[in-house]
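**User:** You know discrete backbone vocabularies at least as well as I do. Would you mind producing a protein record, from residues through to fold? Write it directly below this note and I will take it from there.

**Assistant:**
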Amino acid sequence: MLRKLILKVHLYIAMTAGAVIILLGVTGSIMAFEPEIDRLLHWDYYYTSSGGPRLSLADLTGIVTGAFPNELITAYTVSDSPNDAWQVWLEKSGRVYLNPYSGQILGVRPDEPDFLSYVHQLHLRLLLRHSGDPGAVIVSCSSVALFLLSLSGFYLWWPVKRFTIKRGSAARRWWFDLHNAVGIFSLLFLVVLSGTGILIGFEKISVPMFYRITGSSPARPPKPPLPPAKSTPISADQALAIARAAISGAAPFMVEVPEPTEAYIVRMRFPEDRTPGGRSRVMVDQYSGSVLFVENSRTAPGGRRLTTINRAIHTGDVFGLPSKFLMSVASLTAALQMVSGVSLWWKRSRQASRQSSNTVTAATS
């Protein structure tokens, strides 16, 4: 009786959330390698030959403002890798990629949606940008659905314990074996994927919980002081040097250029920080050059670190390429489980319908 009830719940959840889970599985498998795919698609922009000392940000600023007069620079992307291009972010024209040794402009990418940005937004909110963020709510609920499907699927698998797909079996049996075999081998990864997705989707609950568990409090950056009269801002190069000294061992990768009443934000990452955005930052007063705030991923509050590790596990960034590959495959198995489950249900329904029709025909003949 309990097994029949769980089977029905399993089926109803799959039929309700299956389409969204398939979409999340496919987009998630792509997003696991989003930075790598983006670099591959724009190889000529991202990579350059090394040679000699790098130019300063001031030098690159002069080159970019000469090519794009009257444009406001909002940020710089830098790298310690010798073959990486540097980027200058413009308010209107997008990103300008430059050879940091020669200053040659390698290309310009307008700030417009592309294939990967559509994939990203599909995965986050189904491209639904409305009041209340309904797309994000649907995605979060679908993560709950996948978590319940994984647990209930394990319960249903246990009496059967099928690990392999029998060769030469009928279509229904083949789909049954596929659903069971893929489900059991991907179970742990699907539970982790959906569990971390739930924590991300319901961060208004999970993040305060992380801070309560660790007995920590969020570190809040201060408001920059009012600029003194007739003061001259420090340069982006100076802000970069100050940030390097503030967090030893971390490599800066972005300098955010402030408005007149704001401060420089220099984003940094340690070697173990494999997420593209990094998790360390330094706030530098743009007039005095004093360090206003430091967030170090190695010494951040416990709640912040739990939030970071949860996201890194979900995206596969936690151990670099090996974990990215595992999470990418796990995302695809989530989609495959939905397809195989629907195919199995469809064949069972057709067989039951034929049996019922045969029974009626026999009774009336």
Notes: The first strand starts at residue 73 and ends at 77.
